[in-house]
Amino acid sequence: MAFAFTANAERKIDPRSADGVACKKNRYNCNETPNPLPRVDTVWIEEMTWMDVRDAMAAGKKTIIIPTGGVEPNGPWTALGKHNYILQSTCDAIARKLGNALCAPVIKFVPEGDIETKSGHMDTVGTISVEQSTFEALVTDTVRSMKAHGFEHIVLISDNGGSVGPGLKSVADSLNTAWGSKTVLYIPEYYRSWGPVEDLLVAEGVQKPGVSDGVHDDATVAMIMMVTDPDTVRWKERVSAGLATIDGVSIADKDQTVAWGKRLIDYRATATVEAISQAIAQDAR
Name one GO biological process term (predicted). Predict the structure, then answer.
């Protein structure tokens, strides 16, 4: 606490200071000091330095995407963090397609059911759930942080269903009303894009309609997660055990599965970018 107080006091004295340390102590603590290192090829602010973010915003990247995932059961061989792993690929693709956007860290903890009664996904070991109020408070403070730094459009997306989407809409509506603007954009089209990519597999003959293993998993999930990290769907172990199928679709051919995953990511990213662009255009009117 003493350090925080000192840092805030120094900033009041010298507004040039950054990084919680006085500018006078070292020129790399000064807001205006040029970044001595080359630009990094990432859209994730947690992978960037404060100078990287500053320079990206100065170059026009004034949109920030806040993705929300979850920790829940997803079939017998898919990692609990399914939504979080998927967002590593989809948010990255969305930000790059927009061209003027960055991604905030994935918010991994969302409402998954009542903790005491073990409703919803809380009936399965490993699930982490938070109260709706906790979730909305976390999203709210993340949005407020991004606005304080000067981001002009703050996009909320969820890879998870349930009460997550309504919670994001509630946060967006509340903050936009308080600020008298449409700074915060909840984009439900991102989550809705799950349906069309499943239809695409059927249309392309990759999957037969109506075939289901009856678990909380499907081929589109496996394909996208394979792009992020094959270990998240236990690809090697499943191939060895003869279990490399889901809903009648084989994922044994790694290259083919990853290629499909990239196609599905591009599909979901394109649909989301269109929705974001439309929302921003409406805000400008």
Answer: riboflavin biosynthetic process
- CB under 8 A, 24+ apart: contacts of 238-242: 238/77
Q: Please give the domain boundaries of the chain with CATH numbers for all domains.
A: 1-33 (no CATH), 34-277 (3.40.50.10310)
In this prediction, residue 10 carries a pLDDT of 46
Structure tokens at 82: 């399914």
Question: What is the reported pLDDT for 14?
Answer: 72
Evaluate whether 222 touches 246 at the Cβ level (below 8 Å).
Answer: yes
pLDDT band at 165 (very low <50, low <70, confident <90, very high): very high
Q: Is the per-residue pLDDT at 184 higher than 70?
A: yes
Neighbour count for residue 159 (Cβ, 10 Å): 26
Our measurement of the distance from residue 18's CA atom to the centroid of its chain's CA atoms, rounded to an integer in Å, reads 27
User: How far, in Å, are 64, 90, 95, 130 from residue 229 at the CA level?
Assistant: 24, 13, 20, 26
- DSSP E strands, the chain: 63-68, 101-103, 153-158, 184-186, 245-246, 249-250
The pTM of this model reads 0.93
Residue for token digits 């394909």?
Answer: 223
Evaluate whether 259 touches 116 at the Cβ level (below 8 Å).
no
